[in-house]
């Protein structure tokens, strides 16, 4: 049963965000959000987030070269590439296929590509994490997914696609914000923010326990750590990061 104070505060927040709710019901918000607002705001949040996680990402992605195929090549598929904040961490010469459900990240993506010419860009596919049919089974050495599993429609479906496209022995790298401890104030505020946050930030869910999905997926090895990324005034502090091997 939902805490009455959560429902009350949700109502107050919805009132404050009522213009956005109105635009949503009129069918205006979603296309505006996808084309203009979300790519713009994500770039700003991403820049702040990247400063906080840069060292952790460097450490995490330092093992990527270990997953080169027997030919010495490293093929990486990135799900939900957005503006390409991960490119700087990829080893020189690796071949990257980018996917995103939102085609409107093109400008930010092109800027990242110009800055990171040490890698080869194979393709950009407009695709959701749950439906990567354009990518052949067992065709990539590593899949990367950062701050994406919060907003896919089906986490387990996305992980099944990850498993399908990875070659045996390939790795899945992840960094995701997750639900806070159920008894914490952070979790209380995540529940308050939940409906309005999801609407404003293109389907981003604050209370997913993604580590459970990863534990249930059929990876042969899972290296997962819980960590915190402190972004003032946001409810996305608890994170998980690591990699899993097929």
UniProtKB/TrEMBL annotation:
All residue ranges annotated as the Methyltransferase type domain in the record: 77-174
Taxonomic superkingdom: Eukaryota
Transmembrane regions listed in the UniProt entry: 7-29
Keyword vocabulary terms for this entry: Membrane, Transmembrane, Transmembrane helix
MF annotations from Gene Ontology: S-adenosylmethionine-dependent methyltransferase activity
Pfam families hit by this protein: Methyltransf_11
This protein's name: MET7A protein
Native source species: Turnix velox (Little buttonquail)
């Amino acid at each position: 049963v939902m805490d009455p104070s959560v429902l009350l505060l949700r109502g107050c927040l919805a009132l404050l965000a009522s213009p956005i709710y109105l635009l949503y019901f009129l069918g205006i918000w979603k296309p505006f959000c996808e084309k203009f607002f979300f790519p713009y705001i994500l770039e700003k949040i991403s820049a702040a987030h990247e400063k906080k996680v840069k060292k952790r990402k460097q450490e995490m992605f330092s093992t990527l070269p270990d997953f080169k195929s027997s030919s010495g090549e490293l093929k990486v598929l990135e799900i939900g590439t957005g503006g390409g904040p991960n490119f700087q961490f990829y080893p020189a010469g690796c071949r990257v296929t980018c996917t995103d459900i939102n085609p409107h990240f093109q400008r930010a993506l092109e800027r990242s590509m110009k800055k990171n010419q040490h890698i080869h860009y194979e393709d950009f596919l407009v695709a959701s994490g749950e439906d990567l049919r354009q990518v052949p089974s067992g065709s990539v050495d590593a899949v990367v997914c950062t701050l994406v599993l919060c907003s896919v429609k089906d986490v387990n479906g996305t992980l099944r696609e990850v498993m399908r496209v990875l070659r045996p022995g390939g790795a899945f790298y992840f960094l995701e914000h997750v639900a806070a401890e159920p008894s914490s104030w952070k979790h209380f505020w995540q529940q308050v923010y939940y409906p309005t946050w999801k609407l404003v930030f293109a389907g981003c869910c604050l209370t997913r326990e993604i580590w459970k999905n990863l534990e249930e997926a059929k990876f042969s090895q899972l290296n997962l750590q819980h960590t915190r990324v402190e972004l003032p005034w946001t409810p996305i502090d608890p994170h998980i990061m690591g990699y899993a091997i097929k």
